[in-house]
Amino acid sequence: MNSEQLANGLRLRDIKVIFLDIGGVLLTNGWGRVSRQSAAEEFGVDFSVMDKRHELIFNIYEEGRVSLDVYMDTILFYEPRPFTKEAFRTFMFQQSKLLPNMLDWLIAWKAQQPQLRFFSLNNEPRELHQHRVDHFELRRLYDGFVCSCDLGLRKPDPQIFAVALGVAGVQPHECLYIDDREVMVTAGKMAGLNVWHHQNSEATISFLQSL
Q: What is the pLDDT of residues 7-38, one digit of tens each?
């Protein structure tokens, strides 16, 4: 997906809102497979068993339907463990890292574009999302957050794009949606949004500068 696949003649002056994913764009994915494998190794548990249980519950956890405590009870603490929930929670949160270049550049760039508002459009569980927003001070960039945990909806459900447009008070053609996963970008395009497939910071910065 590249700039040639955006709406014809898109210019920065036409955009009122940028919907920007968090994981894979600004930060690492908060609790992806690599992180879960690291957790299994760190705490000495069977990854295959833990991951099967993760797959059973993670969707509803990401939709805000169960808490982190319930998630941990489901994947690990259904039996006694030689470590605490707090230790596991701390390790889980520590898996979130800042990706290079994007956040500080976007904050500076946004300051030069007073007409633009930024909203997240992301799938994340509530406790992890709140940690990431607070720890990395994401309110420096975002004017609001459209997150699966607050809506009971997950991308690529078409309804989450409709809700995001309503929250921001804009029409699809007035938006730019940036995501690192092509399936999500395609879903955004099908919802009528202008889209950009983020693959690395250099390409995305160059694209935004070209508008």
A: 456 889 999 999 999 999 999 998 999 999 99
Which CA distances in Å does 192 have to 10, 144, 154, 158, 165? 13, 21, 18, 10, 11
82-129, pLDDT tens digit by residue?
A: 999 999 999 999 999 999 999 999 999 999 999 999 999 999 999 999
3 state SS of 14: helix
- Quick one: tokens of 189? 């395009």
Contacts of 148 (CB under 8 A, 6+ apart): 62, 63, 64, 122, 123, 124, 154, 155, 160
Superfamily of domain 33-94: Putative phosphatase; domain 2 (1.10.150.240)
Residue range(s) of every CATH 3.40.50.1000 domain in the chain: 3-28+97-210
Residue extent(s) of CATH 1.10.150.240 domains in the chain: 33-94
**What CATH code would you report for 3-28+97-210?**
3.40.50.1000
